[in-house]
Structures are given as structure tokens and as C-alpha cells.
Amino acid sequence: MGAVEAREQGFVTVVHDEGTLRQMHALAPSVVAQAGGALVGYALAMTAEARQLVPVLEPMFEQLSTLRLSRFYVMGQICVAKSHRGRGVFDALYAGHRALYGSRFETMVTEISTRNARSLRAHERAGFEVIHRYRDATDEWVVVALRFAK
User: Fold this and answer.
1) pTM as predicted
2) Predicted pLDDT of residue 40
3) Considering its fold, how many domains does the chain have in total?
């Protein structure tokens, strides 16, 4: 992916191998979207128990531990196939998260690179609020939260 495409279409920062995805899914199932039998989107779930599975995310988990959040989990990554962007898949993935985890957790959090304008706009539209900003060795991040209705 080139710089222009990343700026216009958004990007993911971490690439997970199949073994890690299986372990994460065993701890907390991810939400996927399919069309015609093909995967067209996913939104990964990461509970605190998944922390050790993705060491590159340790700075994020360290930041989260300072925020005094209760009953939260991390939406580990969301991605929608180019062919299905603008069709409601993003919103449907988050609706799936609410349905699956809304009674178990109070808050879903994720972090977004400040360079990822498309993702920032989409999360704001979906109701996420910025709760923290920080810089690590790789980038500047915003932590956003979506509180589940009680």
C-alpha cells in the first residue's frame, strides 16, 4: 500500500499470523462480515488475557492501564474490504460487537494512529470518543472509547 492509498483509505498497523488470531479468537471471538461466502470485513476482539499474544501492542496496554477503565476490552483492529466500503459493513461489525460483548463489558476501546484520518472519522461517526492521546516509539495515537448503554 502506498502513502496516498494509506492516507485516503486508512491502514492497519499490526499484522497478525493465523496462530495468534486463533488464540485471540479462543479468548474472545472476533466479529466478521461475509458476502457471497467471502470475508469482506473483520473487527478483532482482545481481552486483557490476549495482551501477551501481541507484544508490539504492549505500549497500548500500558497506556490503557493508566486510564482506570473498568470492564473494558480492546477492539484489536477493524478492516473492511475496498469492494464493500461505504455499504454499512463498518457499522454492522460494531453492532456485532455490541450484541456479543455489551452485557459483559462496559466499554470497548481501541487506538488509532493520528495519521489515519479515515479511521478517526469513521470511529467518531460510530460514537467513539477520544479519551487519551500519547506518542510511543512508532507513532502518535489516540485512544477512543465506545461506552455500551446500560
Assistant:
1) 0.82
2) 97
3) 1
